[in-house]
Design brief:
This protein is α/β, with parallel strands linked by helices. The protein has two domains: about 20-260, Type I PLP-dependent aspartate aminotransferase-like (Major domain) (Aspartate Aminotransferase, domain 2, 3-Layer(aba) Sandwich); about 265-325 and about 360-385, Aspartate Aminotransferase, domain 1. The chain contains 13 helices and eleven strands. The strands form three sheets. A seven-stranded mixed beta sheet has the order 1-9-8-5-4-2-3, sandwiched between helices. Strands 6-7 form a two-stranded antiparallel sheet. A hairpin with a 2-residue loop joins strand 6 (about 170-175) and strand 7. Helix 1 (about 20-30) packs antiparallel against helix 9, helix 2 runs parallel beside helix 9 (about 250-260) and helix 3 packs across helix 4. The two termini are about 25 Å apart. Bound molecules: pyridoxal-5'-phosphate (PLP). Pyridoxal-5'-phosphate binds near residues 93, 95, 138, 164 and 166.
Length: about 375
């Protein structure tokens, strides 16, 4: 495919919205029950199937409005509150930092590993104090944290791990899908995620009593029986036992998510193929680092490269002139005004990576020709700057 005469518009993210999602939306609207209902139940069941949750694990899925809400509620369920600290990679989404603040607690910033850009478990241990109430383990783009090591450290100190698996829905760690590694896991289904509900999130949590509490917390604390709402009706008598928020998922959003999940295998395979193609074609460019991994166990969310800091801005401009958008995930947390005074470890890798990281377009069903065009345009930039 020759794009050179007519540069395409290639965004970083492109949701796969097809006829199935549109019909599911229309159907859910025609149902007339717009709030939390039967589609939310279906969505929770389908997520549990992807995560291969079995009765033995006593793990359950609770759907909420966003990934941010899922993190906020998980931290509250752990009892995180004023004066507490939560260890999180500085190289993380602002949603995590804000959820920590929303509990009245403070983030403590830990470094990442250069090979995976995931949390550096070795440094975690040196940051734990009696104020530490949670460790956030966030899987980044195409890599999975060293969850066994983190679970071992957390267990030794009696601190729960919150697995932020917003990037790794449908991926596997040592043969088990994400959602099975810790007592709390969250997924995001926002507009740019591998599977979208437009906006949505879930918490995978252990124990029926925790599920009951979470189901109330997502409904501004109302102890409405979830089963009644899953039948598209509501109770008029309920109690309020604890703090809650308007964080439930709506039927319309769940209906879109259900339609997306039916295509999970094809979505996962197409993203794996695109990432594999990226890593092969970009490995020839000596000025950049193009990560490679066993994409067989990963449902990739984003593909990133590391480029020299002096080239990043110029390369982005060149790619834009070719119709290719790129992104930067992320500016590290400790550099934001609000978090300047938070405790932190040595963040050398975070500093190194955040000056170099560049997210390339990755879409479900993206053609390998598009990957070739993007890789070729990157190569063209470095050839010209020799
Ligand atoms: C790692 C990570 N955690 C949490 C979130 C928040 O999810 P949401 O956008 O659904 O609130 C995101 C969103 O991009 C994310 O990338």
């Amino acid at each position: 495919m020759n794009f050179s005469t007519n540069p395409p518009k290639i965004p970083v993210f492109k949701p796969l919205i097809e006829e199935a999602e549109i019909s599911a939306s229309v159907e859910s609207l025609k149902l007339g029950w717009l709030g939390m209902g039967s589609y939310v139940k279906q969505f929770e069941e389908q997520v549990a199937t992807v995560c291969e949750l079995d009765a033995l694990s006593d793990r359950h899925v609770v759907a909420v409005s966003t990934g941010h809400a899922a993190i906020h509620l998980s931290l509250l369920m752990m009892g995180v509150g004023p004066g507490d600290e939560v260890i999180t990679p500085s190289f993380n989404n602002a949603a995590d930092f804000q959820a920590i603040l929303a509990c009245g607690a403070e983030p403590v910033f830990v470094d990442i590993r250069k090979d995976t850009l995931c949390i550096d478990a070795t440094q975690v241990e040196s940051l734990i104090t009696e104020r530490t109430k949670c460790i956030i383990a966030m899987d980044y783009d195409i890599f999975i944290c060293d969850h066994d090591r983190l679970a071992e450290i957390a267990k030794r100190h009696g601190i729960p791990v919150l697995h932020d698996a917003a990037h790794s829905f449908g991926s596997y760690y040592k043969g088990k899908p994400t959602g099975n590694q810790h007592a709390y896991t969250i997924f995001s289904f926002d507009p740019v995620k591998t599977i979208t509900c437009i906006d949505g999130g879930v918490i995978v949590i252990q124990g029926k009593e925790s599920v009951r509490r979470l189901q109330a917390k997502r409904l501004i604390g109302m102890t409405q029986p979830a089963e009644q709402m899953y039948n598209n009706s509501r109770a008029w008598a309920y109690d309020i036992e604890e703090l809650g928020f308007r964080y439930h998922m709506a039927n319309l959003h769940a209906a879109i998510g259900c339609a997306q999940l039916k295509k999970m295998k094809a979505i996962s395979e197409s993203r794996q193929a695109a990432c594999l193609h990226y890593s092969i074609s970009l490995s020839k460019i000596e000025q950049i680092h193009a990560p490679n991994t066993d994409f067989k166990s990963i449902t990739p969310f984003l593909y990133y490269i590391l480029v020299p800091p002096t080239d990043r801005g110029h390369l982005r401009k060149h790619l834009l002139s070719c119709g290719i958008d790129t992104g930067i995930h992320w500016q590290p947390g400790h550099t934001f005004t609000l978090f300047q005074n938070c405790r932190k470890g040595n963040l050398d890798v975070t500093e190194y990576v955040s000056q170099r990281v560049l997210s390339l377009p990755l879409h479900s069903m993206m053609s390998l020709e598009t990957v070739d065009y993007i890789s070729g345009s990157i190569s063209e930039y470095f050839e010209a700057s020799k």
